[in-house]
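Subject: design request, 246 residues
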């Protein structure tokens, strides 16, 4: 415990925030180091490192005052962990959903390679099922796709036809991404409250990471297609194929 406290003090001034945030950063770093050490000793292990939904503000609990508080990293400390993407955790903007996804699998995944495949943490279930030869029941992993061919560098075309995302306010804040196109079926961020501007409903985050330009008028055909795909997924209760290998 004394070692942890000393390390918290090391980072406390640099981060200019609460000790709880410092502990979280140190813990994550040491946990990742420990996992990598175990994986290095077991070459057959598939290691997947990923993050939670997006960058967000830090929630802390003050032991002295017994009061919970939020450290607003952007507003209070000029720290924007999601830059250049708009939004943070809980939003349907890309800053609320883009996270690291790192894979280490000696002999299966070629080192120092990247993939442009659209993916989600929901795809881990179908991928692991394919690796171990398990068949997923029709009522499980409704939005999970098998990424095994992408991990092996064999995929020549998109595995996912599209991706559904949901913001903090639930089913009324859904969005759909297909290729470079993104359609949001709601106004606002879908999660956090902001002082300026509403969310543009239809845009291309890859070329407009700030999600500032609404191109609905320019491409109403694509907007209609994405809206139809979103409604079809809601009606059938899944986006992954049913009754066939995923």
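Subject: RE: design request

Done. Sequence follows.
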């Amino acid at each position: 415990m004394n070692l942890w406290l000393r390390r918290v003090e090391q980072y406390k001034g640099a981060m200019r925030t609460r000790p709880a945030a410092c502990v979280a950063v140190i813990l994550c770093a040491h946990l990742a180091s420990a996992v990598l050490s175990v994986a290095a000793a077991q070459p057959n292990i598939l290691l997947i490192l990923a993050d939670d939904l997006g960058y967000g503000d830090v929630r802390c609990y003050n032991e002295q005052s017994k009061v919970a508080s939020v450290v607003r990293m952007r507003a209070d400390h000029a720290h924007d962990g999601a830059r250049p993407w708009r939004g943070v955790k809980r939003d349907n903007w890309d800053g609320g959903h883009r996270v690291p996804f790192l894979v280490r699998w000696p002999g299966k995944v070629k080192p120092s390679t990247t993939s442009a495949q659209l993916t989600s943490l929901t795809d881990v279930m179908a991928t692991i099922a394919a690796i171990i030869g398990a068949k997923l029941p029709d009522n499980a992993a409704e939005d999970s796709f098998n990424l095994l061919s992408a991990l092996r560098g064999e995929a020549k075309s998109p595995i996912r036809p599209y991706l559904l995302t949901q913001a903090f306010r639930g089913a009324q804040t859904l969005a759909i991404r297909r290729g470079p196109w993104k359609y949001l079926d709601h106004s606002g961020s879908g999660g956090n409250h902001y002082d300026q501007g509403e969310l543009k409903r239809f845009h291309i985050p890859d070329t407009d990471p700030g999600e500032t330009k609404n191109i609905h008028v320019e491409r109403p055909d694509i907007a209609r297609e994405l809206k139809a795909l979103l409604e079809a997924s809601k009606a059938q209760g899944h986006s992954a194929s049913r009754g066939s290998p995923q």
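Residues 189 and 214 are 14 Å apart (CA to CA).
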